[in-house]
Write a structure and sequence with these properties.
globular; single chain; Spore Coat Polysaccharide Biosynthesis Protein SpsA, Chain A; 7-stranded mixed beta sheet; 18 helices; alpha/beta; two-stranded antiparallel sheet
Length: about 425
């Protein structure tokens, strides 16, 4: 009798395993069928968006990641690689995803990298140069979210539509928008439009993760590499930024700030990587109330409390926020946000000395005056590069000649850090092309 029971139990177990395998294959086939691709999102009627056409093909307004039928034919991990699931993803998909997500991750297609910038006033050329630098080296597809004053939209479209993207870039143009009841206060904070970045998690509701950069940023290696930091976040981290200074003796926050700030020298928000799903869900500790507040609830109270004590606008507000929530910030090295302060008083970014500059940040207007010719030389080289030309002879070699002319300056004395990573990025790009990637 016992032998019969054992055989019956073994048969029942085998049958259950076969049933589970059959269901898993069915779910996988539904995810991979031709109709299972991402659906296009209709433009948000609450915000006027424009997008260009031209050579990039399907650069349409409001192109997004969500669709009404996404629950029917897509794996949960397709929508969110960090397992923070949208509220409308169906329970059955969630069940099967838990069992088979790791196998699917090995075969899932490359996702877009989302990059946002805010451009106002005379920042058109600078912004386009930044976007060009992102396009040159990046590997995975890019989605640009460009927030600009209305009068700049047509100029952006004319320029971006004329660039040969090779099908790997889409863009969407957005107007500058602030909460109606407090728009005037946000507009006059620091520089025009600067505080727009604070509202990106609330505006781009269907974007899971985003890299925000100032207009005066230049990428000297693929965007893919800083995007990969998202995978290094622990369970509490929601954003990544670099320190404001490496050397406290020349730090601004630790010497002059009249408000709380993150760490020893504060953080710089010119390059900010965000898991926006986590940002939208988090309840933040603060010094205004014992009750934790969400992102959309905390911004205005912070501004009202500290507006007479902040100098750098939205960056100061972010410092205050992460002072109270330090566990939420991932700090990346200075070579990912290299600024004049890293060399004008002597070289103080050791990582850049060893590996080169990864992202160049030309704040203080150094791309447009003669105060820091090293920074200006890099900017001019990328601005004037023609897509399709040989990068070594048309960009790298002329740039090195110009950098040698700046050796009378502190930054010029370490000019090799400005081309060390750039040289490697060009070599890697040609290696990928030779392999047909």
């Amino acid at each position: 009798m016992r032998r019969f029971a054992r055989v019956a139990l073994l048969c029942l177990g085998c049958g259950l395993c076969s049933l589970l395998y059959g269901f898993s294959q069915l779910a996988l086939s539904l995810e991979q069928q031709p109709g299972g691709g991402r659906e296009r999102q209709a433009p948000d009627p609450g915000a006027r968006q424009q997008a260009g056409g031209g050579r990039a093909g399907a650069r349409s307004a409001g192109r997004g990641e969500a669709g009404a039928g996404r629950c029917k034919n897509l794996s949960v991990s397709f929508w969110n690689s960090y397992w923070m699931l949208p509220s409308d993803v169906c329970g059955m998909n969630c069940f099967w995803e838990a069992a088979f997500r790791y196998d699917y991750m090995k075969t899932r297609p490359s996702e877009k990298m989302h990059l946002a910038v805010v451009a106002c006033g005379e920042r058109l050329e600078e912004t386009v140069t930044m976007l060009r630098s992102a396009v040159i080296f990046s590997i995975k597809p890019l989605q640009f979210h460009i927030f600009a004053e209305d009068q700049l939209h047509e100029s952006f479209k004319d320029i971006l539509d004329d660039l040969p993207y090779e099908g790997k870039v889409n863009y969407t143009l957005y107007p500058i928008t602030f909460p109606t009841e407090s728009a005037a206060e946000w507009k006059k904070l620091f520089k025009p439009c600067a505080s727009q970045r604070l509202f990106l998690p609330l505006i781009l509701k269907d974007v899971d993760s985003l890299l925000y950069v100032d207009t005066d940023i230049l990428f000297l290696r693929p965007v893919d590499d800083i995007w990969s930091f998202l995978g290094k976040f622990n369970s509490t981290q929601i954003a990544a930024m670099a320190p404001e200074h490496e050397e406290p003796r020349i730090g601004w926050y630790n010497r002059f700030a009249r408000h709380p700030y993150y760490g020893v020298t504060g953080i710089n928000s010119g390059v900010m990587l965000m898991n926006m799903t986590r940002i939208r869900r988090k309840y933040f500790k603060n010094d205004m109330t014992p009750v934790r507040l969400q992102w959309g609830e905390i911004l205005m109270p912070l501004l009202k409390k500290y507006k007479l004590n902040i100098t750098w606008g939205d960056q100061d507000l972010l410092n205050i926020m992460f002072f109270h929530n330090p566990e939420s910030l991932y700090v990346f090295p200075c070579q990912w946000n290299y600024r004049p302060d890293h060399c004008i008083y002597g070289s103080n970014c050791k990582e850049a000395e060893e590996e080169g500059i990864f992202i160049l940040h030309g704040n203080r207007g150094v791309y447009h005056d003669d105060k820091q010719p090293t920074f200006r030389a890099v900017y001019e080289a990328i601005k004037n590069y023609s897509f399709g030309d040989d990068l070594v002879h048309s960009l790298l070699q002329p740039l090195e000649l110009e950098l040698r002319k700046t050796m009378h300056t502190y930054c010029g004395k370490v000019y090799k850090v400005f081309i060390k990573q750039l040289t490697k990025s060009i070599r890697d790009l040609y290696a990928r092309r030779s392999k047909g990637r």
